[in-house]
């Protein structure tokens, strides 16, 4: 019997690496595709193939997903070593949008059995429709190019599912962070602040610190993707909210990082201070974004396992260790 072939698009990023580790423990064929080289998971049970591909090139998407039974679409804007913000507002933002989605869906048409497609959306897609606690029923009013592109992909996958071309869904994710193993691929705010704190630099906020976020460990998020894969009949055809359901203010999260870094440096915790907003400030930076993941939990049985404090301490320890 031929083993299931799972293709991960965007496998070299923070979430891609975590998803690859989860899938590598299964008796499947695993194809890891990214513009940068993707590290193959250690001690893999899966048969792992790594492909370094620029998916913006013509025909590259079709080749990447050829014969795939499952496609996990994690591609996000990238501008090299910079943060995601620079790429998300520039030409690269289209890479997560309708162009790639169209290529992907066209490549999957005509299969005897519709392939499974799972997409990494974002809780910020709701934009101006954000409430105190998101439950998935809010009207979408994306405020940034990044979120507009994410929504375009999600809608394309839902339409293709309704058409019977694929069986797909979108997971709208909370703010992700690494608890250590992949911190070099983590371009998020918690990893950035961990590096600053260990370098004895103040942790800066563009507001008074009361903005709340749902902060989810990438390892827990990866398990959400495998849960969706295992329960595709229950989740196909719509989007789902994936997070911890817990609100943490930015001020509290940064203070936690400063305290964890002080344990490693032996110095006093660096200060957490408010500064004028940078030019890269986005409208969503000033929104409270906290999820209610109960619908997804009920549909799949998934639940987050990593407490925020444990995750932050592991992240800071990994950054400190690799800096020495």
UniProtKB/TrEMBL annotation:
Highest taxon, organism lineage: Bacteria
Name of the protein: Nucleoside-diphosphate-sugar epimerase
Domain NAD-dependent epimerase/dehydratase: 6-243
Source organism: Nonomuraea polychroma
InterPro entries cross-referenced by the UniProt entry: Epimerase_deHydtase (IPR001509), Lipid_A_modif_metabolic_enz (IPR050177), NAD(P)-bd_dom_sf (IPR036291)
Gene3D superfamilies reported for this sequence: NAD(P)-binding Rossmann-like Domain
């Amino acid at each position: 019997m031929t083993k299931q072939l799972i293709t991960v698009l965007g496998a070299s990023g923070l979430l891609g690496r975590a998803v690859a580790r989860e899938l590598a423990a299964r008796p499947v064929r695993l194809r890891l595709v990214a513009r940068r080289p993707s590290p193959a998971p250690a001690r893999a049970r899966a048969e792992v193939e790594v492909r370094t591909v620029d998916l913006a090139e013509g025909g590259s998407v079709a080749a990447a997903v050829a014969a795939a039974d499952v496609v996990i679409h994690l591609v996000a804007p990238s501008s090299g070593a910079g943060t995601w913000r620079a790429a998300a507002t520039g030409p690269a933002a289209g890479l997560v949008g309708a162009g790639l989605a169209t290529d992907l869906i066209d490549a999957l048409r005509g299969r005897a059995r519709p392939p499974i497609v799972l997409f990494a959306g974002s809780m910020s897609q709701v934009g101006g429709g954000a409430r105190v606690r998101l439950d998935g029923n809010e009207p979408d009013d994306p405020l940034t190019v990044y979120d507009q592109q994410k929504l375009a992909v999600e809608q394309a996958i839902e339409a293709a599912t309704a058409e019977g071309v694929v069986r797909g869904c979108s997971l709208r994710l909370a703010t992700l962070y690494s608890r250590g193993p992949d911190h070099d691929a983590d371009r998020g705010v918690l990893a950035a602040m961990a590096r600053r704190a260990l370098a004895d630099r103040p942790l800066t906020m563009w507001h008074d610190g009361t903005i709340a976020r749902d902060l989810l460990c990438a390892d827990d998020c990866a398990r959400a993707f495998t849960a969706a894969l295992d329960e595709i009949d229950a989740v196909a055809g719509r989007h789902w909210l994936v997070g911890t359901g817990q609100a943490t203010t930015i001020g509290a999260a940064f203070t936690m990082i400063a305290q964890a870094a002080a344990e490693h440096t032996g110095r006093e915790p660096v200060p957490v201070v408010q500064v004028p907003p940078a030019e890269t400030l986005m409208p969503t930076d000033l929104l409270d974004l906290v999820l209610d993941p109960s619908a997804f939990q009920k549909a799949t049985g998934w639940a987050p396992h990593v407490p925020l404090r444990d995750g932050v301490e592991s992240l800071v320890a990994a950054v400190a260790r690799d800096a020495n």
